[in-house]
Design a protein that fits this description.
Length: 433
């Protein structure tokens, strides 16, 4: 076997890690738990499907490279770009895991030098605020992160600039506007996440802060608790890991499906499939077409796996995208992300929802989104100088489906009747058998 790298885990309720196993990243790649870890009463499987608690080596398919949940821990996107830029070269997956700060999602680190990870301390958000206030006019707000954190960078994924900061005794992920973004992305995300809470979805604490011409969106780290300087960490598995998707699984792949995710959640013991259906619908109601599998996940709460709080919901639909949003994850078994009443009600039973209950929630959520998005958006934009009306009009397309459903209740009633009739015919056929 090749060189083995330690895999560390923060067990539930612990603020210091233990070594859970070893990752062999050379051919043949594999993972094995340490006997000392398996003997612990509190031992938790890093992945209850791919990496079950058992002795021996678990082979890792060459196409995957790393176990799926360890892929989640690897710096990616913006974080990977910054770390490679600081190194002056492309870094391998193992190098990224070694040098990345311990602000990655979840409760795992894969590294030789765990002491460096434990010694890391988050900067206060006030330091970021000071740098934002000093930014030159026209400078991207992401420059403030680099000035505060220097070469330390971040292990956070996603394409937008972000980093973890301490604020009022908690850890927060702070997200910034970048040069290539749609206008006012922090305000857009704040409004969408505020609406998510108003329709009853599980959402972390959020905040929107304005510093001169710059805004930042803040979301509390739901995978960290306790002392920010020495936090307890919670295991996290993205839907990409739960579905065991290769990097080649892109939009249109039928495996990237909300229905498949509901089935996989049940295998992991996570029972919140009804909320998953609501999140699917809500993404369409607010025009969030970036609902890819890394923007959903499961969280270990110390007792078992649960659907994590919602995150990364941003109105991004524009008139250039077509008549209505098409979601990144499929809304049916055909790989299509089509959004529509019949489509959503037709799969509600797969998520454990009665069609009448699903229709009632959909109607209420559409009314809430349609009536409240614009006042919320104008309030969020108010501290900024500039063309508020232009931004509001540009984002209006994202909420078009919600407005359509809210203004045409007869369409929902008809879709519900059609689905109820389908289910009745299905029951009659079953009875005849």
């Amino acid at each position: 076997m090749g060189h083995a790298v330690p895999v560390w885990i923060w067990l539930p309720g612990r603020s210091v890690p233990v070594q859970a196993g070893e990752l062999v990243h050379e051919h043949p790649a594999g993972f094995r738990y340490l006997p000392e870890y398996l003997s612990q009463q509190q031992a938790v499987a890093l992945d209850p499907v791919q990496l079950r608690l058992k002795k021996g080596n678990v082979p890792i398919p060459k196409i995957a490279g790393l176990p799926f949940v360890i892929q989640d821990a690897k710096p990616a996107g913006y974080g990977q770009d910054r770390l490679c830029a600081n190194a002056g070269r492309d870094l391998s997956a193992i190098e990224l895991l070694e040098v990345g700060p311990p602000d990655t999602v979840g409760a795992m680190e894969v590294c030789e030098q765990i002491e460096h990870k434990i010694a890391w301390r988050p900067k206060p958000v006030s330091a970021l605020a000071s740098e934002l206030d000093r930014l030159e006019e026209g400078s991207p707000s992401s420059r403030a992160i680099r000035r505060v954190n220097g070469d330390a960078g971040t292990s956070a994924g996603g394409e937008r600039p972000k980093a973890t900061f301490e604020h009022e005794g908690k850890l927060w992920l702070v997200k910034m506007q970048d040069r290539g973004d749609l206008p006012c992305m922090p305000a857009r995300e704040f409004v969408a996440m505020s609406l998510a809470r108003r329709v009853g979805l599980t959402v972390p604490e959020i905040a929107l802060r304005t510093h001169g011409a710059h805004q930042v969106f803040m979301i509390e780290r739901f995978d960290r608790t306790g002392d920010p300087a020495c936090p307890q960490r919670r295991l996290f598995a993205s839907a990409h890991a739960v579905l065991q998707l290769e990097p080649s699984a892109v939009r249109g792949d039928p495996r990237r499906s909300y229905l498949h995710l509901a089935d996989a959640m049940r295998r992991w013991g996570a029972l919140e499939t009804q909320e998953l259906w609501k999140r699917m619908v809500f993404n369409a109601l607010v025009g969030n077409m970036d609902d890819h599998p890394r923007n959903h996940g499961l969280l270990h709460d110390g007792h078992g796996w649960r659907l994590s709080p919602a995150f990364d919901i941003t109105p991004m639909f524009t008139v250039r995208n077509g008549d209505r949003p098409s979601l990144s994850m499929a809304t049916g078994l055909d790989g299509n992300g089509e959004a529509g009443l019949g489509r959503f009600l037709g799969v509600a039973a797969h998520f454990g929802l009665d069609v009448e209950v699903a229709a009632a929630w959909l109607s209420s959520a559409a009314q809430t989104v349609a009536s409240q998005w614009e006042p919320l958006m104008r309030e969020a934009l108010a501290p900024l100088p500039g063309v508020h009306d232009e931004v509001v009009e540009s984002v209006r397309w994202s909420f078009g489906l919600a407005s359509e459903i809210a203004s045409r209740p007869d369409d929902l009633a008809m879709a519900m009747a059609v689905e109820a009739a389908k289910q009745a015919r299905g029951r009659r056929r079953s009875n005849r058998r």
